[in-house]
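About this split. The held-out portion is used to measure sequence recovery: a designer receives only the structure tokens and must propose an amino acid at every position. Recovery is the fraction of positions where the proposal matches the reference. Here is one held-out target exactly as it appears in the evaluation file.
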């Protein structure tokens, strides 16, 4: 069951990150279903870290989780190794902390919200919970 949750959450996170990347790369406005300032958030100076779009490592992270879940389903011993597990816990922890930092930036610095960023933060947090406690 853990694998199913990881697959679903990683696909959601990847889709949201890919949509934000596409929107920014091709200068297309984001569709914000509840209103908001999605474009202002992702096109702010906080949309990049060390010169890299935040969505790129985000997509890589969600792809990594997807591959890990598929590895668990296929019952490969490599994916059950302690080093792999603790590496994923560490990477997931970093993802959650960075997502919470960006949520802080939205709330207190930009004072604008991006619904897609929040969805990505929730997906990242739930992946951490599933990996750590699932």
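Reference sequence for scoring:
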């Amino acid at each position: 069951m853990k694998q199913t949750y990881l697959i679903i959450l990683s696909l959601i996170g990847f889709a949201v990150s890919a949509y934000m990347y596409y929107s920014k790369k091709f200068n297309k406005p984001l569709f914000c279903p509840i209103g908001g300032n999605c474009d202002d958030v992702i096109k702010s100076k906080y949309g990049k870290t060390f010169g890299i779009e935040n969505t790129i490592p985000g997509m890589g992270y969600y792809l990594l989780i997807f591959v890990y879940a598929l590895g668990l389903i296929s019952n490969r011993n490599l994916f059950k190794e302690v080093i792999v597990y603790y590496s994923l816990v560490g990477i997931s922890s970093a993802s959650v902390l960075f997502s919470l930092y960006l949520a802080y930036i939205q709330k207190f610095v930009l004072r604008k919200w991006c619904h897609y960023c929040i969805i990505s933060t929730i997906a990242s947090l739930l992946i951490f919970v599933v990996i750590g406690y699932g």
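Annotator remark: The longest strand covers residues 48-49.
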